[in-house]
Structures are given as C-alpha cells and as structure tokens.
Amino acid sequence: MVGELERPLVSNNVDLAQDQSNDLTRNYDLDGECHLNAALLRPPRTQGLVHKQRLSSASRRLALGDSVVGDVSDPLDGILVGQTLKRLVVTEHLVELQTHGRPENQSQNLRFGTENVRPQESVPNTDAISDQRSCLSLQVVSGPSCGLHCSVLSTSTARLPLTLGRVPPSYLLLKDYEVSGKHAMITWNLNKLRWELVDMGSLNGTLLNSCPIHHPDPGSRLWGDPVELASGDTITVGTTSNIYVHISSHNERLVPFGVGMTSDPMSLRRGGKKLPMEDVCYYHWPLPGINQFGVFGICDGHGGVGAAKSASKILPEMVATILTDSVKRERVVSEQDASDVLRDAFSQTEASMNNYYEGCTATLLLVWADADENFFAQCANVGDSACFINMDGKQIKMTEDHKVTSCSERLRIEGIGEPLKDGETRLCGLNLARMLGDKFVKQQDSRFSSEPYISQVVHLKKSSGAFALLASDGLWDVVSFKKAIQLVVQARERHSTETENLAEKIAEVMLNEARTQRTKDNTSIIFIDFDSISTVSSCKVRP
C-alpha cells in the first residue's frame, strides 16, 4: 500500500509529446523582480534593489513573472474523482533526454545559455555561503499549491533533509496529482557547504531551471544525482508546480524585527476557481547602501498585474535613490520626518511608470533607526490598501482610504472645482480616485490623482508590544481594524512560548480569517512585530 500511495496518479508516456513545448510551463521573466513574484527573493551578493536578469525568456521557461500571478486556477477542474491524470505536455528536449539519457555536459551546466555556467562539482560559492550557516527559502509560485512557502536553516538538523512530495511527512506538501508521494529531497552538504537537490525516483521527474535532474530512466524509480542549488533557481515538479529558491548566508543582514508576509488570490466561491492574482507585496531591509532604512509595501493592481509589478519595483528604488543623498538622509533622522522623501518617491514613480490601461494602489511603510537604535515609521499611500500600527494597546491609522465614496476624496474633488454628482460612486468606471498608473483615464478626467497621503511619524517604543499590519482590501473588506487587533493579540497569546516564525504565523492567521469570512478579492498581508527578532532574509517580493 505504501508503494502505491507514493506513486502519483499520472502516466509517464513520453510519446504524448508532439510539438507541445510551448505549453509545458509559463514563460516567466525575472526582469524587475527582486526574487518570491514574488516574490521573490534576491541572492545575497545582489543586495538591495540591484536587479539582474538571470534567465532569458527565449531559453528559460521556469523563471518568475507575468504568468505566475495570473495563473492561479485549479488545474483539476473538470477532472472526475478517481480519474488518472496523464501528463499532456513534455518538451521535445525532455523527450530527447529521457530517450537517450543525460547529455554529457549536463552536469557542467544546469542553466541554458553561457552566462550562468555552474559546474556540478564546483567549489562552494563563498559569496553566498561563507560558512556552515545558511538559510534556504522555498516558494511555490505556480500550480495547485501556489503560495506555499517554507524556510530552513542548514543547522536545523531536525528538519533536514527537506522532502518535497504529495503525501506526509513531506516538509513541503504539494497538493498536485502529478507529484510523487516522495518526489525530491533537498539536503545540506556539510563537506561542500552547499544545498543540493536530488530526485527520489519520481514517476514524472524533476527539472531545475528547465533541465532534467532525474534518472535518465524515470520508470526505473532510481534516484538521480545530487545537484547544487543556487539562489534564484526554479524547481519544477509535475508540469505546473514551480518552486522558487532563495538562499541567504549568515552574513546577510536580517530584518531587526519579526516579519510575516503571505498572500492568496482567493476565489469568488468556496471551492471555485482562483481569481487572477493582481497583488504584489514586498519588503527590503536594509535599502541598498542605507543600513538603517527599510521599506515594506503592498500594491494592489486593477486591469491586470502590470502596474503593481512596476510600482513594487520602482517605488522602493526611488526611495533608496533619494536617501543616498546624505543631506536628505540626515535630515530625516534629525527631524524625524520623511514626508518629502515619500512624496518625491511617489511622484518619481508615477512619472516612470508607463501603464496606460492598468493601475494599482500603493502603500509603503518606511522604517528607520537613529544612532541610538530607536525605530521610527512613516507611511504613504494611494488607494485603499491600508496600514495601521498598534502600540501600547493604541491603534494608529497610517493610511487614508481613497475610494471615490470616501469623505476625504469627495472633499478633495470638490476643492478642485469639479464636485461629484449625488450618487456618483465611480470615475470612468473605477472606484478609486487616487492610484499609480492608469495614465489613459487620468488624461480623460483631471479628478484622478497620484498624490499620496502621508502619515504622521510614529516612534516605535521598545517593549511597547508595537506591531504594524499592512493589507490589501481583500482583508479589510471582511475584517475591521478592531477585529484584526483581537486576532493578533489572541495569536500572540496562543504562541507565547514560541519565538521562531511568530510573525509568519500571525500573518497566516489573518489570511485564514479572510478566507473564513469569504473575501472575494486578492488578499496580501504583511505583519511586522517590532517586539521580536527576525529570522527572515532582507529582501522579499510576493505576488
């Protein structure tokens, strides 16, 4: 019975492949991503906001990008209970490898192209992993388990090796019938100081950056050879489950407080198809070259995810660029006010975006520390992705709602001499009056704006129980600020004896509440616990 349980309900008939290589996976593109979108994450040696296009869209099909956030539908829709799923698409390259065995140079180059040659038995990359302490993070970016993520330290012997599979006790449990019960394994090679991936004799094989790493004869159920993992790699199991890899060393600066980030596209009805994902959430700590400043943000797109992706890349870059000016940076610290920085960053981001028919909300929380390690926070936003801080039991609202129906927006619009008519709740079909992008409608109606609301500065007192919660309207449509605070307090009490990943658990509690309340919109959440120490890496982006 165990043997049957571990076999996926998929045949491995490679003869089914007939010029279907274009359908094997989505054509993802890492350009502009800091990664988990994503995302997701960046290798330690490219700290901050320096983006590197790792894969070309013509030769690599498993990087992250446009299709990840849009392809969240359930691949099992229409499948009858008990029906065996067959792999319908296999690339010609994969068929050739399975027929003739692994090419001679496969072990020397696991990436297509010449710019990323990485010998299989090379000396460990000392830039990324300089000693025995390394953190591996995995994010499922497409497939039935999209959004699932986990992290493990190389020193966490109780959690290693890490197994990927369809049945317990797999550490990364994938609800995908094209995945074997025990599909693949990731281990920390103590001798070579590196993470290694090995296929465990899966029926449908495992790909690393589109290249097979399983045994040349998948039907033999023999294990493949261990292959080194690097930050930015994409693992594919089945045909739709893509897993993004991020590796950080102990030298990579960690966020000095707890951070939990999670998201779910949600569905219109329980058990229904997932909605297209148009949210992007991210954080960067520290900003490149600016050790005491970091940003946390959410962009909720409409009309597509393009504007949200652009804003989530450009906005933190603009903040970082402005703060590289030592005079401006010192003024923020001395005056304890970053209003000018935030206002200029939003203005420059809007000018840099070229999204005429897509737009997005943008909520950005800037956090910085002074020389005495006192932390301060200030927020700027357009749209309805809200943020609040709770400190000493008091709620501090950090954002303003920019729906057309909000009082503040109706007053602003009235002030420019073009008041809304009675009962008018939309402008050009949009329920938001402030956003980034949407250049076309802004040309048609001058009542639209990209001017951000700037909050007060909050001094985050030590031992005050302070936390911040940022979320897209998928949460706020069904959960009030007051209810959110109650959930956080309850979760803290429930996990009071735990210190590891507490912020992540609280973020998941909030997301589960949105599911329970049957929200009908994409939901993204960032929870920041200023009273705890973080174990997460410095940069993360997620769709």
From TrEMBL:
<dbReference type="GO" id="GO:0004722">
    <property type="term" value="F:protein serine/threonine phosphatase activity"/>
</dbReference>
<dbReference type="InterPro" id="IPR036457">
    <property type="entry name" value="PPM-type-like_dom_sf"/>
</dbReference>
<keyword id="KW-0378">Hydrolase</keyword>
<keyword id="KW-0479">Metal-binding</keyword>
<dbReference type="InterPro" id="IPR015655">
    <property type="entry name" value="PP2C"/>
</dbReference>
<keyword id="KW-0460">Magnesium</keyword>
<keyword id="KW-0904">Protein phosphatase</keyword>
<keyword id="KW-0464">Manganese</keyword>
<dbReference type="InterPro" id="IPR008984">
    <property type="entry name" value="SMAD_FHA_dom_sf"/>
</dbReference>
<dbReference type="Pfam" id="PF00498">
    <property type="entry name" value="FHA"/>
</dbReference>
<dbReference type="InterPro" id="IPR000222">
    <property type="entry name" value="PP2C_BS"/>
</dbReference>
<dbReference type="InterPro" id="IPR001932">
    <property type="entry name" value="PPM-type_phosphatase-like_dom"/>
</dbReference>
<dbReference type="GO" id="GO:0046872">
    <property type="term" value="F:metal ion binding"/>
</dbReference>
<protein>
    <recommendedName>
        <fullName>protein-serine/threonine phosphatase</fullName>
        <ecNumber>3.1.3.16</ecNumber>
    </recommendedName>
</protein>
<feature type="domain" description="PPM-type phosphatase">
    <location>
        <begin position="258"/>
        <end position="530"/>
    </location>
</feature>
<feature type="domain" description="FHA">
    <location>
        <begin position="162"/>
        <end position="213"/>
    </location>
</feature>
<dbReference type="InterPro" id="IPR000253">
    <property type="entry name" value="FHA_dom"/>
</dbReference>
<dbReference type="Pfam" id="PF00481">
    <property type="entry name" value="PP2C"/>
</dbReference>
